[in-house]
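[recover] target loaded
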């Protein structure tokens, strides 16, 4: 570990980043929390330990842990045809769509291709759409009906639509909203007290999104109507707590997730060494590395961990710098620690 090799505040100035919150995991515990900058530029709202950021696609990591938890309890089978669980919408039939599983969806091997320009943030001029309307291609958020384009299991195709379908699977199996299921099976038992899919009326704890030019994004707070794919608001600490739970599970020390299901998450899927269930995989001198990256309007974040070494890093920022995470401040912090 060599965090002294980067001056975070100077890097924030160089990259015009408003605020940063980061957590270091060591020995399967949170060893350090650092906060820098502002929740909203040109105000006195400072980033604190409990400041909440838009997680964007790190939402998929939470969704994947939820699915494996429900699998653990026999509620879901990740290798079952998902049409068994779907009622309000089903996979449209075509030569490729005969058998899609949660394993396919979690690893982005379902053969589903996101429409170009689809799945943006909430548009104020439109009412919030239902998930069925989105998947049927009846909204400005997804103007093309979702269907399977390639043989399931044959190709890696990163897909927000796939996680929207997972949301419907969870709701169909439990008979409750995805948000309520997540709360009951993950947020409450793991005490993820600063994780939510809904912004309260008072947003003092919430970070605004910023552009690379230092301006607030429209509406200040970016909202995505796809909870399972990109709708989560959370803190680096809550993300780190979920990572720690996965680390414990791998060693058979979790009361929430078995080592079998935890190991399944970090096992290569679809013949791709870098694709796990809801996480990306990489080989490293420290052993297997898992990661989840979020990049949305006004926000960038990253979770990276070495689960077998019980070490990790979560960093969340409230500025979209316009470059990939590893080419900016987040990448500099990652390289300073690892």
């Amino acid at each position: 570990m060599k965090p002294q090799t980067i001056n975070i505040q100077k890097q924030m100035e160089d990259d015009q980043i408003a605020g940063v919150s980061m957590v270091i995991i060591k020995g399967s515990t949170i060893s350090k929390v650092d906060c820098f900058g502002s929740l909203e530029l040109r105000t006195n709202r400072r980033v604190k330990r409990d400041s909440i950021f838009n997680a964007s696609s790190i939402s998929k990591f939470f969704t994947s842990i939820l699915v494996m938890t429900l699998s653990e309890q026999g509620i879901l089978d990740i290798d079952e045809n998902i049409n068994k669980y779907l009622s309000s919408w089903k996979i449209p039939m075509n030569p490729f769509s005969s058998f899609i599983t949660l394993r396919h969806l979690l690893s982005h091997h379902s053969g589903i291709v996101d429409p170009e320009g689809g799945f943006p943030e909430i548009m104020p001029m439109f009412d919030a759409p239902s998930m069925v309307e989105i998947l049927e291609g009846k909204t400005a958020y997804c103007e093309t009906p979702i269907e399977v384009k390639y043989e399931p299991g044959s190709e890696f195709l990163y897909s927000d639509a796939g996680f929207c379908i997972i949301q419907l699977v969870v709701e169909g199996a439990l008979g409750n909203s995805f948000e309520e299921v997540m709360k009951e099976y993950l947020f409450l038992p793991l005490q993820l007290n600063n994780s939510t899919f809904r912004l309260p009326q008072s947003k003092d704890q919430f970070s605004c999104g910023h552009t690379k030019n230092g301006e607030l994004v429209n509406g200040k707070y970016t909202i995505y109507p796809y909870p399972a794919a990109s709708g989560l608001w959370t803190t680096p600490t809550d993300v780190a707590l979920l990572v720690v739970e996965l680390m414990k599970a791998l060693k058979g020390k979790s009361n929430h997730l078995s080592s079998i299901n935890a190991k399944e998450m970090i096992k290569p899927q679809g013949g791709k060494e870098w694709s796990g269930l809801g996480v990306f995989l990489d080989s490293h001198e420290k052993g297997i590395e898992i990661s989840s990256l979020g990049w949305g309007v006004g926000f960038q974040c990253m979770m990276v961990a070495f689960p077998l070494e019980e070490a990790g890093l979560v960093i969340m920022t409230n500025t979209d710098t316009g470059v990939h995470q590893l080419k900016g401040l987040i990448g500099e912090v990652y390289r300073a620690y690892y």
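[recover] notes: The chain is about 25% helix and 15% strand.
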